[in-house]
Structure formats: C-alpha cells, structure tokens
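2 proteins. here.
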Amino acid sequence: MPDLFLELFSEEIPARMQRRAAEDLKKLVTDALVERGFLYEGAKAFATPRRLTLNVVGLPVKGQDVREERKGPRVGAPDAAVQGFLKSAGLTSLDQAKIEKDPKKGEFYVALIERPGRPTEEVLAEIIPQIVKTFPWPKSMRWGAASREPGSLRWVRPLQSIVCTFGPETEEPVVVPVQIDGLAAGDVTYGHRFMAPGAIKVRRFDDYAPALERAKVVLDADRRKDIILHDARDLAFAQGLELVEDEGLLEEVAGLVEWPVVLMGSFEEAFLAIPPEVIRATIRANQKCFVLRDPKTGGLANKFLLTSNLVAKDGGKTIVGGNERVVRARLSDAKFFWETDQKVRLEERLEKLKTIVFHEQIGTQYQRVERIAALARELAPIAGAEPAQAERAARLAKADLVTEMVGEFPELQGLMGRYYASIQKEPASVSAAIEDHYKPLGPSDRVPTDPVSVAVALADKIDTLVAFWVIDEKPTGSKDPYALRRAALGVIRLVLENNLRMTLGENFSLAISNLQDPQNPGEFVVHRSGSQTPPGQYPAVSGSHKSLRAAGDVAASVVPDLLSFFADRLKVYLRDQGARHDLIDAVFALEGQDDLLMIVRRVEALGRFLDTEDGKNLLAGFRRAANILRIEEKKDGRAYDAAPNRSLIQERGQPEEQVLLQVLEDASSQARDYVKREDFEGAMRALAALRPAVDTFFDKVTVNAEDSELRENRLRLLNALRDATRTVADFSRIEG
C-alpha cells in the first residue's frame, strides 16, 4: 500500500519545541485522515533543528465509495421542501429519486446517493495546508511581503520548502499538489547547513533518511541523543573522568545539532573553589555543556564537554577555544558573585526582602518570612526540632534571594543560602533547612528528614496555602499558577514520611492568625488590590474586602475548604500508593479527622479489614440496615436516631435482637476504646464480632413488624448498628 512522506523545512526550530511539534504533526495529519475514512498501518514523526518530517505507511490509494439512501419529504409536500431535498441530495429533478411507501406515513421520496471514493493525494492536498496554517506553535512569526496580508502563514521561523510525496514503494511516487501561501510542494530537500548544503532529490521516506545521513544530518532525535551520550562517556573515560549525566541538557543539545560532534574543553583549576553546583549551572545555562567528575575525589574536574554541529577541519580546536573563552568569562563572573556574597551576612540582607513582592495581595517576602518564622517555631515540637533553631532557619531561608549568585541563577535558591549559612557558622540543621525548606518539589523529590528542615518546610507550605485561600486564589480545573497542589502534596509527604502527628485544622487556623495586623486584631496585612501603595508598604485591609473578614470568620470558611482540598490531594497520593479513594472518603467523613498520619493508618486498617470475610459480611449487613433505614425514614418523614429501648427488647423482643443489642453495646464500647488508643486494627476486630449477630438478626427478625412499637425499636437498633461502624469510618462512603 502507498505511503505518505512529508517534510516541512524551515530556517530554524527551537530545541524545546521540536519533540512536541513532531508529535503534533503526526496527530493532526493522521486524525484528519481517519476522520475522512482513510485508515493507515503506522506513522512516525521526526524533528531536527531545521525540519519536521512525517512518514505515514499503509494508506489506501483512494477512499471508500459511498452509497447511501437519503429520505426526503412526503409525495405532495410543498415545493420549498422538495427543492431543499433535491439540493441536499445533489439531484436535479424528482425523476432521479424513487418513491417508497410507509404503512403509517404514506409515500415519500428517497434519493440514492453514490459517491466514488476520493483519491488520497487529493485529500492530502486539502488537509495539509489547513494543518500547516493552523499549526499549534507556542510562538510563531510571519515574514516577507505576504506577511502584510491578513491570514498569511505563520510558522515558528520562515518556512522555506515543502516535500510531499505519495505512492507505493514499487512505483514512482507522485508529488502531492500542496500549495501554501505561494509555496508549492516538491521533491527536493537540503542537507547540513555547512557540510552539505546542496539540494537533495528524494522520492520517499526510505530514500530520504539515508540521503540525509550522507548529507550529514541525523534525522532521529533519539539517535542524536545516543551518539552524544556515548561519545561523551567515551571522551570522559579516556581522560580518567566520569560524565555528570543530565537528561534535560541532553534532550536540549540533541535539538541544537543535526550532526553531533562531542569535544572536550577545560578551564583553570582555580575555579574549582566555586561550589560545584554553581560551576555546573554556569556551564550548563550559558554554553549548554556537560561537566565532568573526578572519580578519585568525587568532585568536579576542570574540564567540560561541548557538542558541535559539524566536523571542523582543525579537529575542533577553534570551536573548543571559543567555548573555553566564554566559560572562563562566565566562571570569572560566578567567582566574583561567590566572593562578594560572602561579605554580607544573611540576616543583613533581610531588609532588602521588603522590596520583593511575593504577591500583590499577600505582601512582600519579608512579611512572609515573619509569618513563616512564627509558624516554624510553633511547628518545631511537632517535628522534634528546637524552636529557636526552626525560627532562625525560617528567618534566613529567603535571604539568598537577594544575593548576586541567586540573582544570576535563580535555580540555586536555597542551595546558596545553605553555603552562605555554613560559611557564617550557622548550626548544621539551620544551614540544611535553608536549602531543604523548598522540598519536596515533586512526587519524586527527596523529603527532608532533619527536624528543623521539616518544621520550616511545613511552615513555608502551610503559609502559602493559607494565604492564597484567604484571598480566594485557589486552583481551578487544570490551572494552578501558584503550584498549590504541589504545596499540599509536599505537606502530606512531609507528615507521612516523617511519621508526624499533626492536626491540620489547628495549624491552618494558626497560620491565618499570623496574617493579621498585630496592631489591629481582626484585620489582615495584605495589599488592597488596585491601590497605589508603594512597594513594601502593605496596609491592613479589613472587612471592606470581600474575602478578608474577621479572623474567626475567615478560619470558619477557609479551614474546612482547605481540609477538603487536602482530602482530594491525599486521595491522589494514596491512590498512587495503591489505596482506595472511597476508603479515604469514609475516614475523612468523620468529624475532626485532620491528623494525616492517623487517617492513613485508619485507611490501611479499614482496607485490611474489608479484605476479610468478616469485613465483607459486616459491610453487607451495614448496607442492608442502611437501606432499610433510608427507605423507612423517608416514608415516615423522621429519623430513628434515638437509642433502642432495652427494656422493650428484653420483654418482647426475639432472642436474636436481644443478642444483637448486647453484642452492639460491647463491640461499640470496645471499638471506641481501641480508637482512643489509636489501635485501629483492634477496633476492626471488635466490630468483626458483630457479624454473626447481624447475620442471624436479618435471618430471623422481621424489622417492619405489625406492632408499631416493635418496628420503631428495631429501626433504632439498626441505627445503633450504623452508629457503631462510625467509630472507625463512614461505611456509607465505601464502594463495591
């Protein structure tokens, strides 16, 4: 079957856009084909710094013939209806239609429409220009004289040529007549910009890929990555060094070159006095180069690897020399920043934080530091930290934001603070907390374990969450511009992975109180939206702002909503760990459940219990009781939530309900005692004792007895069963 070969050749495609663009091209073309009934066997897309390429194999020569019957108006219908039918069916007169009879509706016209399948190349010539003109580049441009015309082509960089051929491998393929803003498709592409810039005539993809290789272009990005990685490892090994691997940098560099050539450069050993992370950031950010490690010392070596886009006649000496000069200049700047920053203590930098706005309604970084320090001191005992150290670490945690080094390399925030804190002889836990308070940044990031780090990290994330909740800036749908979901997941991981006992609601309320103006209790120190207050001066705003009310009112509305948000995040976290979301709902439904560690332990115990026969049968008994209660309470318009009448059961009840009452009282009492001792397994075992009595009760006792007094008391007994299970979870939330 024929194949489609398409190449869109342009001046440049930024590395960060290439892989996504290739996938977009494949999806857009294949989706358009499938929508029109053209199925295919396979498709693959490629990208280099100058081209997007698509190969779709196994396409039919033409689309399927269409034969359909279209029902028209009744015989004798108004002329307007008849004319509309003829036009829609492509008929010139009613003689071309047939008449069919319907026993109920009478005679009506029917058109038999037959359309031969369209040639595939005709369809391709129609869909490819549409796709190119509406291609979803993150950024695009217009160029040349045509750019003055409305609706002219936009592309990431000027589109220079199009290759589009179609045909079976046994025949000469045809050039699909694609026309886009005066640019016509052909069968000519171009090789490497410098080493083989001449035109290359191509017929199909199987000829194209080897022709490009001969013209010094490696089409497959993954193969370019593999070449760079292996050559880099080999060069490092030859010098007795190790490559510091960097997947993100490797992906980027592979998108910068069509013919990768790895070369080694060096810099003066004196620069190794700079922190290794700074050296790596400098060389990576400015020159897109890899650094090397000395396996004997574990530290960085004074050499780096660059990736050239050509084979130089001088073996790369000029290219290496140019890169060395730039690296030397950049490292000189970094060394200057490093030495200059050390002359000012971190606490002396705090005043500058007053000029850095964190959020226009929440305040400056300085105000945040004040709140985080106060909250970290309160959280320190929970994490097992010394309160004074937690407060000290929190006060210094953001100071490196105003250092020269972090100004140049924002990704080093926290890390540089740790270095500077160590130099000024801060305690090791304080220095570590300055770096670690941002963690964890994602699901795979390390969770701090040092108590001071944990306290400050919790304080930072809780303050952020509470502040944005107070000003009603919460995540919506897929939008989360302030990474609040990540902050909540960070709190969850910090608590669970460090086995911390912490009540969320209480600490949310504490964080809310920290947002108040100490001189005006009940008012919040935030920036009134739209005011002209100078930076760093944030007046107290009270009830005049719709989302800023008295502290008690704010806590009453914010805390439950934030707890609900945490419940959703906890579900995501535990689901990834293999837990059932409905069990989390069942535990969270109980009042006062905001101790994450206890929630998880209760969920785990509940899951294990429901996996047993006793658990499954008790759940079935609960559901039967709950269904009966729901039906009868709805019918009677009242709740049967009073305690059952023990005397009535003893005097007139059946033996089975007498046994159930006694077992219920014993099991409920024991389960409550176990829960108080936080022995959830024990609570489940106590509830398991209900199973035989519940089974026998439903087998032998008629709940809806004719005696209204007995009926009411038995419904109360079922309610007691429902209440007993709530000592551990809300069984009504359990699915399955």
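next one coming up
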Amino acid sequence: MCASGPGRRAVLGGAAAAAAFTVVPSFHERAEAAAPAAAPAYRWRTAVIGGTGFVTGVLFHPSVRGLAYARTDIGGAYRWDDRAARWTPLTDHLGWDDWNLLGVEAIAVDPAHPDRLYLALGTYAQSWAGNGAVLRSEDRGATWTRTDLTVKLGGNEDGRGAGERLLVDPRDSDTLWLGTRHDGLLKSTDRGATWAAVSGFPGTPSASGQGVTLLVAAGRTVYAGWGDSDGTAGSPNLYRTADGSTWEAVPGQPSGASAKVPIRAAHDRHTRELYVTYADAPGPNGQSGGSVHKLAAASGKWTDVTPVKPGGTTSDGSSDTFAYGGVAVDARRPGTLVVSTNNRWAAVDTLYRTTNGGRTWTSLKDSAVLDVSETPFLTFGADRPKFGWWIQAVAVDPYDSQHVVYGTGATLYGTRDLKHWAPRIRGLEETSVRQLISPPTGQAHLLSGLGDVGVMYHERLTASPSRGMASNPVFGSATGLAQAAARPSYVVRTGFGDHGNGARSNDGGKSWTAFATQPALAKDAPGPIATNTDGSVLLWTFVHWDGTTYPAQRSTDDGATWSEVSTYPKGATPLADPADPTRFYAYDTDTGTLFASTDSGLTFTARASGLPFGDSQFQLAAAPGRSGDLWLSTKGNGLYRSTDGGATFTKLTSCWASYTLAFGKAADGADYPAVYQVGSTEAITAVYRSDDGAKSWVRVNDDQHQWGWIGATIAADPRLYGRVYVATNGRGIQYGEPV
C-alpha cells in the first residue's frame, strides 16, 4: 500500500525461463506508440457511504458564521459548505507521488484573515515515508501554495487525535508555529513559506516520542503541549511563551500518569482560563487513564475539573478505564465547555458538558437520541449504534451554543439541541477500499470490500447503502470478494470477523449466509477467495497479517467442507477463468511463475515463468467472456498478456508501469472490452482507458482528481461504457464517467 511512485523496477526472472514470454521493444524505444491521446472530459464523483474513517480534528472558524474545517488521518482535509450542508474535499489534487500527504497532521485558520487556511500534511513519520509539507491558501482551500518540509509528520501515527499542532500567532498573522513529533517546534515568519527550528524551545525531541502535541493561543500567549514527559513532577508537558521568543514550563502544571500527555486545549476568553485534557498515552488506542485540568491565567492556579475519574467499575463488573480527548469552549457563554472521553470501551465514550467552569458536568450520551438512517452502516450489525469511540475531535459552533459536533473512528455526529444527534458527514468519505466488483446484471452496479466496514451492496451510488454492512457474519475488514462470472447472483466474501470469516450470497450480494464451516486458518489469516464461473468451486487462500502465507483450501459444497490444495502457490491471489469452470490461475510473485489448474482447482502446475518477481505490486486479471485471456499488471515492468491460459506471455509497450487493471463495456464499434488501469504511460501515474486492447491509452482523471495512492484495485462497469470505479486509500470509492 505504501508504493511511492515510478522509482523502483521489478526484477526479471533468469535466462533459462525467458522463453515463456516475449519482450517487445521497450517504452523508451517506442515512445511514439505510448503517448496518450487527448484526455476525454470526465465527471468524477464519490460513491456515498458516509465517513467510515477517523476524523481527527474539527475546527469552526472563530470569525465567520458557518465556516468549518475537518481533518482525517489518511483521507485529507475538508471545508464545510454551510449553504449546501456538506463537506468539500480540499486535497484531492495530491497525486500518486504525494500519497504520504493525504494524512493531515493539523489545520490552522487566521481569525483576522478569514480566507487564509493552512494545512500540515504527512501521514507517517517513519524512515520509509516522505517528508511533510505545509499547504497555504488565500481562498479557503480552493487553491494552494505548497512548502515542502525537511521533517516528517505523522497524521496516521499514534497521537493523531491530539492537537492542533499548527497555529497562527495571535500577535502577528505572518507568524506561524508548527509542532513536530521528532524535530521540536518550527516557526515561520512569512506565512508558512519558509520554516526554521525554534532554538529556544525547552522540549528535547527524540526519534521515538510524540514531541509537540498541541499549540493553542490564550490571549497573546502561546501554549505548547509536550508529549514526551514521563509524567513525574518536574517533567514538564506544557510550555508557553508570552513574547514569541522566550519559552518556559508552565508553573504548577499537573503531573502523574493521568496527566502525562496533554491531548488538547481550549481557552475561554471570557474567564481567561485554559482547559487541558490529559491521557496516560497518546491514543487513540492504549489509553487507560486521563484527566481534565484548567489554568487561571491571571493567578496561575491550576484546578482539577475531571468529570469522572477513570478506573471505576461498570454495572457488569468491567473495569472502566479511559482517557480524555477533545475539549471545546462555548465562545458565547463563559464557563461552558464540552470534553470527550476516549478509549472507553466498557461504558462507551461520551461527551461531558459543563456550564460552570467544570464544577459539575452532564453526560450528553445519557440523553442522546441517535439517528443513523442516513448512514446505516454505523450500527455495525448491532441493533443500534454506539454514541462513539475514538472521540478526540470536538467543536462547538462559536455562533450557536447548541451546535456541537464530534468525530469518531467512523463518522462525525452533530446536534442542534444537545439531545438529537445525527451524522454530519455528507461529502466526507474516508474509506480504505480493498475490493470492487461491478456486476453484469442486477440492481447494484457496484459491490465493495472495505477496510474496517466490511462489504457493501451499493444499490445507489448517491446514498449510503441501505443495508449497511453485510451481515451474517459482520466483518471488520474485507479480504476477499468474488462473483461467479456465468452466475452473477452467486457472490462470496472473506474477511476479519468475530463470528465467521467467510460467507456466500445467492442474490447478488443483498443477503448472506456464513459458510457452514471454515478452515482453522480463517480466523487469523483470511485471505482472498475465488469462485469458478458457475459457482461450483471455491478457492480460499490464507495470509496472516504478519505476512506468513499458507496453502489454499478448496470447497465444492458452498463451504460446508474444505480440503487443502498442496500444489497451489502459497500467498498467491486466486483467479477464476471467466468462461471455463474447470480453470483457475494464480501468479507466484516470489518466483515470477504463472500457475494454472484445469481440474477445477484440485491441482496446479507451473506454466509461464521468468515473469517479473520480487516487487510489491502485481495483479492478474482475466478478460470477461474469454477463456485463457490473461493480463498481468506489474509495478515496475508494465503490462503482460497471455491468450493461451498462461502458457506464454507477451509484454506490451504502451505503458511502463501498471498497478491495477479492469475491463468494462466495449466502445461502440469495438470488438474488445474497454481496458482500464492505474498506471504510467509517461511520467505521471494516473487512471487510463484503452478502447483498442491496450495499444493506446487516454487519461480519464485530471490533476484535480488524483487521491494519492490508488493502487489497490479498480473496477469498470460492464453495462455502462466509460464508467470506472477507483479504490482509494482514504478517499472512498471514486467513480468517473464521460460527460
């Protein structure tokens, strides 16, 4: 998933196996044949599911009614369009090479200049990830200017729900502060165009710590949370500067395990009090203790205002461990604020609200009425949804005291009366998509296999699936989804679930029945699955999350019994022939060998060898309605095609890299299905379509619709020419069609 663009090429097999395929002249030798035609006009939209990912921050603009921004851990940033009551994505222009910038570490607005917006981007702070960047806009994110940083940010690392780590200085709109995880505090004096380390900041950065967890202005003073304290007295976790130059540890600050990591802070300008939520770990997972404290700026007095101390016992005897996360003050009412619990699995997370500065609190969950009819998946297969989990983003509208929103691991909830809550998620889609199928018949034009939210049946693309997540069983993340080519009503799926890991459908994916039995490996290593063209044979592979692979298992009775296929290449993704029910294929990426079965998956033998191997991105696909017409897309070596069931392959010259491939309805007058790919014909990795069997390609996405890394899978509609569905890693399912 962490491919970084057209840099590394796959290794080819040895000379002894070279006869198995034909290499025609390279792309560079025949550049004139590979130049893409003029891009057709396409309209791109997002298939509606509704959130599904972790919303890590929500920020109402303090000076503009109805203007708000949201950030996510892997799916970019959004602006709230109050008139349309929906979110507008702001970072879809980031392309393949910038995949690491789809994680948003922090957002900042300028109260004095409402059109200015700043984003700190960077998904991972690991050595293999690229450096972060800051985007700055003068038109609320409609257009951007970019500054690349020399440090890494971690929008999808532990601590991603803390913050904000980016701040416009309250004394000078040209000055910005940026807190990093491993490189201390940075400062810009030219509105984010250039950055330099703050030499006088007291925190000592480390390669493995949290660094700066939050930045907040309290009047003209800037406070910085520090996540690398050990929690003991004398080990500061909150610093401040009153002049922008000299930093000091805030005197009298709380210590101990429950106040080890400052998560978020908010300033009540009426009472001149700073509220800080704390946890014993950065979260969102792994927290078991926390607290809420306030600092009176005038006197320097700290007060513990924690609503409920973690560590009690629930009604069923479970330990009620949790931390505190979000905090938001009411700009209109002194002493009124909302805080959230986080990682409270026993009693379920809640929001606490106070109107008297924290002397007493009310749990808003206790009186909440949740309406998830717009996004039914939020029940996660239960009778009713939870109030929330992973609640670290909380905001109160500065123009409406009863307008409160909070983020969870799957959505944004909002209220206008502090009692009735519903998703406020239109336009915000953060799903990580694993599998896509566009059926040739039936009501639904799309089935999807997703991270965290299982499998969905999309009877409409403009509304969240009415059936929610596929049940019986409910999956967390899907690992396999397959349809019988000649019997499209028959679909099978696999994934991680608490009550089974495989299921079948006889109505095209509307309803499901769990396999009667499943191999023992399915619990911890459910991999991809295939069904032959008439649905009489299932072939299930097993891959543990740590990468360990196991022999495939075969069933000829709808999953009632299973038997091992010893000759199947372990770890390979199975592919059924779309026309011949006796044929299956599998591509062994370790050796660059194509394996095939002609006895309905009972045994497999090696066919073509010497194909690309050792790289991380391959896909074997079969052209619909044709037996033995196989296509192999490879990250570093482009496209290969076989028309003899994998006995031999020919390398095509029209692209130099291909990540995923799909077939759709043929163009008028064409005798071969339209071919779609995410690949590279020149320098850019993009979505392409070919109407002439991959002799030439046209790019169908554009520079404003790129969505970072899109190499997982694509699907093309067999009923509508030109429509293609693109799986993203954090921007849901994008679909385009000719205008």
